[in-house]
Amino acid sequence: MPNFLLMVFLFSGITGKIQGVVRDEDTREPIPLADVIILNTEMGSATDDNGNFYILNVPSGRYTIEVSCLGYQTKRIENVVVEVDQTTRLNITLKRTAIEIAPVTVYGETPAIKKDYVATTQIVRKAEIAALPVDYTPTIITFQAAVAHTDTALHVRGGRATEVQYMIDDVPIIDPQTGDLAINISKGIIDEVLFLPGGFDVEYGRAMSGVVNMIAERPQKKFQGRVYAKTEKIMPFYYDFGYENYQSTVHLPATNNLQGLLSMDIMQTNDWDPRLYILPHKQRDDYAFYTKWLFAPAGKIKCSFSGAKSRSQFDRYSGPDPFFKFHLDHYRSDMRKGDLGALNINYLPDERKLLNLTISRLYTVRTYGVREKGDYGIFDDFVFRDYRTLKWPYASHRNPFGVTYHKVISEGDYPQYQEKSSEVYNLSLKTNLQIHQYHELRIGTEYIYQTLGNFTYFVCGDTLNPITDDYQHQPKEYSVYVQDNIDYKGFYAKLGARYDYWAVDVEGVKPKKNISPRIGCSFLVTEKFLFRANIGRYIQPPLYDYVYSYYGILPLAPQYYNYISLVGNPELTPEKTMSYEIGFQGLVKENFTGTMNLFYKDVSDLTGTRYVVALPLGYFQYYNMEYANIKGIETIWEYNNKFFSGKISYTLSWARGTSSYAGEYADTSITKPAQDYYLNFDQRHRLFIQGALKGPLKTTIYLLLYFGNGFPYTPPGYLGKYEERNIFHLPFQRQIDCVIAKQFNIGRTSFNIQMEVINLLDQRYEVAPHYPLMKVENINAEDFNDYIPITNPYYSPAADFNHDGIITPYETFHSFRNLIIATDDWIAAYTAPRRARIGITINL
């Protein structure tokens, strides 16, 4: 088993930049050789002959800047805000003085309009994160305008769920085989989330729809501790799904040059995807550990070590497909473990150069199958049954209704066991060069070495010829990129290009190469109105599951008929997106801003499936066959003052294409010609309303409202075939959540008590279509003619209503009818009812 905290080299890119000019207050002439210092840090700079200064590699946060020069009064600017990958600009004036006088202090104001946002950029800050009623860190972006939240995934601007790159402190945490998150950490240690749903810089690869960069806390120079607990178990039964979450964080300042942070998170719930009430076989247990250490051996070099370990394990419920609904003890359970480690080294030769070196390691293992029965503690891993003992699932009369229907499983097991591992080493070298007053150059290269393993065991119908897919591959990826950031008065531009190389480690398959140019610009039309535009090409290698699965066992043996789902294709090429965006942002009045974004995307070479005619057995295989066209408008209105803050986000969008997900056409017995339709995650209208009202006695009320069209779906056609795709829509969606927080202090210890009410109005809506396995009206009593005595092996007391030892045709008819009605699992097709949780945070 890999070590938990593996040391690797990483140069952090989770910083911003401060630049500006220092002038004489009276003459407006630039002041050379003025000292610009960030107080309580070792960061600073001196102005050049034109009064300009630059401070690179500044961690995000709030600072006080001190500016001094011989013959001038020293000035301090408080509350200077620095954000990740952004530039904070200061225009500073100093007053001449013949004698030394006390420094003057001014309060810095964060501009509402920032010109270096050449694309849509959303920042979710710590205060907002704490108030969001979400459980897992990836769902922090749920309430952003660009995000459509289906029943199973998040989709950014009409893209597939797998087109988003998730990162922690600039380190990718996506499993390259499955597209799942390899690491899950507590939202309590996240300082802010940088969400890029549109055009993003050339340094970001493996993403077409968006980037979610979660920035973790920095260790502090003073001892601090935080304990957090949240539960719904104290609530009445109707509100209780067994959810509990406990977190703790401690900051450990070892020396002036060494500070550390330790964090732990534990979550347990009896139903991890709540519906009307707790459903069986839906327990979930998660834990996560995180640590970060900062070390500054010299003024120009800074180091930090960070590591994370997480485990998530959960049972799956059969719905909305009811095949295993009455046999859940033999259904699938999942367990995922992940390890991440990082050692950060920063080198700043002078105020105009920044060198970054990155080597990172991510390791994850996903296992699923039928687990052994028993009670598991929070730190006890699932024990899975020996895959060699699995039996093919089949229908029988051993169900609550005592009759048989071929699609209702009553005996046997979930027929597949899988263990999949991914080990990813990432080496990155990049530099930021302030080569001119108006030009900042970013140059970088990235090399990724991966070891991907898989073992899949699938029980065929006769159990005598199981399918085994056992492989290990070592694909390689590398990239080179360059970007010029042009900052000229009211104009800002980013001009860059990225070269990607991808080799799949399969003999005879040539590497794939791509170039991705990206251009973005913005300019201030007035001091209160910004125009921006960007165009870019984004590529993403397909998931390695689509490349390797079952490819190694070709040609398929005849006995595998109907058992192989999808075969990988090493000849797949990266998927591609051409993205266009125009944005407007303006300060309507004090504290009130408005934003409008118009976007258009052409997506090509999407992974799909097609049937391959082969001997001795044909099969479905992945191909770059699909495309999509996405367009839309986003409007965002924000208002902030010291008593109230609010945001209204509205999205109008269209997402059409030939396939909603890679394996779509393998779900049916036919492969229709490519024809575009509204995709499964197309949502025409979507509205988010967020508000925070500060009341007396340190009380705050948060409201989150969501309204949106239902997603399209395809009704089953004749004999289960799909005649037309997504011609119907699910009902309108709406939900209101409320959080009430009360803060108070006892000595130096602060307490924050929160009450969450999810789905305040208790309005449930349908998120998935649901039907019985056959039409109930087609069940006719005259089709049942047999009498089944107690001596018959097909006799079941559940179908013998009067318990006379004989199941009559009348009893069989009604039992069968009740069974079919029960296969309409409508409970699993609707959202959860009102839920209430109470939590407390203690800051020491």
UniProtKB/TrEMBL annotation:
Chief subcellular location equals membrane
- InterPro entries for this protein: Beta-barrel_TonB (IPR000531), Beta-barrel_TonB_sf (IPR036942), CarboxyPept-like_regulatory (IPR008969), Plug_dom_sf (IPR037066), TonB-dep_rcpt-like (IPR039426)
Superkingdom of the source species? Bacteria
Q: Name one GO biological process term.
A: siderophore transmembrane transport
Q: Where is the TonB-dependent receptor-like beta-barrel domain?
A: 346-689
May I have one GO cellular component term? cell outer membrane
For membrane topology, the record states: Multi-pass membrane protein
Q: Which GO terms describe its molecular function?
A: siderophore uptake transmembrane transporter activity
Could you list this entry's UniProt keywords, alphabetically sorted: Cell outer membrane, Membrane, Receptor, Signal, TonB box, Transmembrane, Transmembrane beta strand, Transport
Please tell me whether the keyword Membrane is annotated for this protein.
yes
Q: Where in the cell is it found?
A: Cell outer membrane
Keyword Acetylation recorded: no
User: Which family is annotated?
Assistant: Belongs to the TonB-dependent receptor family.
Q: What is this protein called?
A: TonB-dependent receptor
Q: Which organism is it from?
A: candidate division WOR-3 bacterium
